[in-house]
Design goal:
Length: 694
Amino acid sequence: MATFVLELRCEEIPAAALPGARRQLAELFAAKLAEAGFGELPVSALSTSRRLAVVVRDLPPAQPDRREELTGPPVKVAVAADGGPTPAGEGFARKVGLPFSELQRVVSAKGEYLAATVVHRGRPTAAILAGLVPQVVAELRFPKLMRWGGGEHLFVRPVHGVVALLGDEVVPLELFGLASGRATVGHRVHAPEPFELAAADSYAEALAERAVVADPGLRRERLEELAGSLAAAAGARVHPDPELVAEHLELVEWPGLIAGRFAERFLELPPEVVITTLRHHQKCLVLEGAAGELVPGFIAVIDRRDDPEGLIRQGNEWVIGARLADAAFFVAEDRKRPLAELVPGLERLEFHRVLGSLAAKAERVGELAVTIAGLVGAAVDRDILRSAARLAKADLRTHMVGEFPELQGVIGGHYLRLEGASRELWTALRDHYTPVGFDGAVPESELGRLLGLADRLDTVAGLFAVGERPSGSKDPFALRRAAQGAVKIVAAAGWELDLGAAVAAAAHQVAEHAAEGAEGLGAALTEFIAERVRRWLTDVVGVAGDTADAVMAAGWADLPGAVARAEALERARGSASFRSLALAFKRVRNITEGQPEAAVDAALFAHAEERELAEATEAFGRRLAALLPERRVAESFAAMEPLADILERFFVAVLVMCEDGRVRSNRIALLKNLGRRFMQLADLSRLQVEGGEL
């Protein structure tokens, strides 16, 4: 068995492109090798900022032989009377490459036929790889591509070298006009000289000796360990930032870090200003004290083992100091006038060419927030809510947001805090852009949650109205994330909110811009929000897809209620009795679908099982009436289970679709009555259970 390594040595690859490239490399190699008959093999993708590589282990010397059973013409056509071949027999023998005398005969329902077993000898593995590698590389997809040379080569970045080794032998192939070989280079600072790899097995080790850590997982471990050590040496700890650490490991070939400091006076700035300056502009990790307070230090990533003269540290300190000084100046300038004085200027800032200015949006958000507050019975002053909506966008006219767009909302909240506004008001502004999608915390205050939900619903409704709807993978206005944020706010708030009514109110406010009118727009928005609710149930709550479908079919507008029903159903569905109940309910749905409503007449019962089912249905209904108002959902599903045996006895003893029309209608009405009770919890017919097709 041998190891194969392919390395594409490139110019600096964007950090964001590398995780996807590794995943594609591993998946494509595994799939194509399996197609070639090699079965499942250990495939791992490696990368640094300057190279993409894949390593495949346990490759045999040649592709496995493949046996193929071929059936030829009928014996009566292929064999002459003397036993020799006819032209048809000779033709089949030539086709399979065997003497006529070695052909077999097989008997099928259609008669006796000539047959042959052909063994296709496996090609050498090196030859398979030589053809497979260009296919894999051509199928790699990146967000952006570059052309170089005469423009004929296209890849994420220009390629300067190709290594292709199977064991200790070069696999001859050509990529981007470059012939494969065994030569590569080490780290650009510590070991820039070219060197030759002795064998594929030694790839990672040979690079490590030359200050290149090709395994991203190992780079992450070293970065996290080093960051912890540097922070501890400064008497601090690293502010958690997994996204930035993930970016750091893609920026370097050698996982290096340095610690630096900035002037303590900058800690007087709002913490988000300091964090944004360090994180977004310099990609530095932030340091904090034991209580979570910021300390005047940072950790920066470097693509080398050391900073012997401290020049890299000094450079980072100078840039960070200058940026923080700019931020302090902008804060001072912004605070020369109250935030409220910036509100009139929102008339001159366009939200959308059809939907109008940010001032118009702020008014819509305020009114929608008031409507939602009424729907949830929130004890919030309506005038304060409208005022908060207008103030929420005012910081878009500040110097700080002009320089640091990431601080929109946040800096407005801090300015209000410094002006002496109530905590409820300033935290509402600070938090109303969070969460982003399903990630992040929800606004701290009731006011902030109302504002955040109204802002998102207005954005989605407005852009839907003017035709800016997500399509496929395209979502330029991030409306899916906005809707996900709305769902998370509602779920976290625990409101008994009719989310459908809130969506309808948002649609009504922008209906004049929608070609299909308020009703059509509301329907499109409802479907869109429902898709996000389903994702919340499956991706966040963690229930199975068919559990989510069953619960949502019974209603999803009361989101906390839907979550409770989904969790309870997911736990309950594993029992044997519940499986029987789900199968029985599929039958109930099949029988009653499309049937007219009718009252149940006990006088028409002909079997004891009909009466038993009617009594059990009424008892179940009374139980639900007592349990559901108190959100005792698990007990409600438990109350369903005894109905499984009752339904089974009913279907054994009773022919629902009998000839007597009145009796038939009565039995259908009995089942529909039960179905209505069940549909207060879930549509069990949506569950996929073994033997579920009746």
